[in-house]
Write a structure and sequence with these properties.
Number of helices: 3
Distance between the termini: 18 Å
Strand content: under 5%
Largest sheet: none
Helix content: over 70%
Structural class: mainly alpha
Length: 99
């Protein structure tokens, strides 16, 4: 577990706290929306090629799939989805404590 401390030099702590809570909530919504869009693109690739993105990544990494622009797009979308999921998980596990 890591800890991050924020010190407020001026102003009301509750105002800053509310701003932080709202900013985090908005970022979570943004990440969820972009992840949903990315997952839709991944499902389109899966329907087109007939296998899951997990299987695709395994085959791609082994060099079993010839590369072209569409294949590279699928790979890029899978990387984006992983990064979005990682960031969303980090925000969901965030605990804000006030002193």
């Amino acid at each position: 577990m890591s800890e991050l401390n924020i010190k407020i030099k001026h102003g009301e702590a509750h105002i800053i706290s509310n701003l932080i809570f709202r900013a985090i909530a908005e970022e979570k919504k943004r990440l969820e929306l972009v992840l949903e869009m990315t997952n839709q693109k991944l499902h389109e690739f899966e329907r087109k090629y007939g296998f899951s993105t997990v299987v695709f990544v395994e085959k791609f990494q082994k060099g079993e799939i010839p590369e072209d622009d569409t294949i590279f797009s699928w790979w890029a979308e899978s990387k984006i989805a992983n990064e979005l999921q990682k960031n969303l998980k980090a925000l969901e596990e965030l605990e804000i404590c006030q002193k």
